[in-house]
Design goal:
By secondary structure, the protein is α/β, with parallel strands linked by helices. The chain is about 15% helix and about 30% strand. The strands form two sheets. Strands 1-2-5-4-3-6 form a six-stranded antiparallel β-barrel. Strands 9-8-7-10-11 form a five-stranded parallel beta sheet, sandwiched between helices.
Length: about 270
């Protein structure tokens, strides 16, 4: 999952959460479905990791070929120094969502969509083993519902599924929500909620490549949505997110400021530099 294309102004009033680098190692790997695996990371510094919200994202750094750990610049100018590194030895950087953090145990989970060796992060996750070394920088969150919202609309593809799972799991008791998740096929379905107020719709591409169908947009367009003022959170492939936001604003009349939207990736390649 990569950088957001855009997002609405945040209403947050809590103190700014400082971000910093952490050196981590893999402690466990668990296959969740045919196309997704969960990697658990540990590190002494994670006892200070601050939960900034259910969709918090971080920069993940992977070792370049032939290296056992990523050599990531530190300090206020780390990004400029990272960009200036030789691409042959520069750590791969991608943006991922934290599925769950457990600071008391010094652990956090990240779920990876697996699509073979089509991308460096997917290839790394497919071969990840306990002891493998990575680094992260973060984390920060965007999920920020207005207190006056009557219900929630949550939609995204499988790259957004970790955040969707965390958002659904964090909903206050009694919160009504319509959730739409696009997946490769229905074999990717997972439990998200037992709450009767949360209606989850799994939208299958029937094996079609991600980003090449309109099934998620069609599902939301055809849905009978609740009355009242919603807060919407949408993420996934950039063009689909753009079209979903346009539908919600122009066809559903949802105010722009009530929608958080993020393009995690773009058909044809990542949004951020590799």
């Amino acid at each position: 999952m990569t950088e957001s294309v855009a997002t609405r102004p945040r209403r947050r009033t809590r103190a700014h959460v400082p971000m910093r680098h952490y050196d981590l190692h893999v402690t466990a790997v668990r296959r969740l479905s045919p196309h997704m695996t969960r990697v658990t990371f540990g590190g002494d510094g994670l006892t200070d990791f601050i939960d900034d919200g259910p969709d918090q994202r971080l920069k993940l750094f992977l070792p370049p070929p032939g290296a056992h750990r990523p050599d990531v610049p530190r300090g206020a100018d780390w990004y400029q120094r990272w960009r200036a590194m030789d691409p042959a030895t520069r750590p791969v950087m991608r943006t991922y969502t934290v599925r769950e953090s457990r600071p008391h145990a010094g652990e956090l989970d990240i779920d990876f969509v697996l699509h073979g060796d089509g991308g460096p992060a997917s290839a790394w996750a497919g071969r990840a083993r306990p002891g493998d070394r990575v680094a992260i920088f973060g984390a920060y969150a965007e999920h920020d519902p207005a207190p006056e919202a009557d219900w929630r609309l949550v939609a995204g593809d499988e790259t957004a599924l970790p955040a969707i799972g965390a958002i659904v799991g964090s909903l206050p008791e009694g919160t009504h929500a319509r959730v739409f998740v696009e997946v490769h096929d229905l074999g990717e379905r997972r439990h998200l909620s037992f709450a009767p107020e949360v209606d989850v719709t799994w939208v299958s591409r029937a094996g079609a490549p991600a980003g090449e169908t309109s099934v998620l947009l069609d599902a939301v367009r055809g849905a009978d949505l609740p009355d009242g003022a919603p807060y919407a959170w949408i993420a996934g492939e950039a063009a689909t997110v753009r079209d979903l936001r346009r539908h919600l604003v122009h066809d559903r009349g949802i105010p722009k400021e009530s929608i958080t939207f993020m393009g995690y990736w773009r058909r044809g390649g990542p949004i951020e530099e590799s």
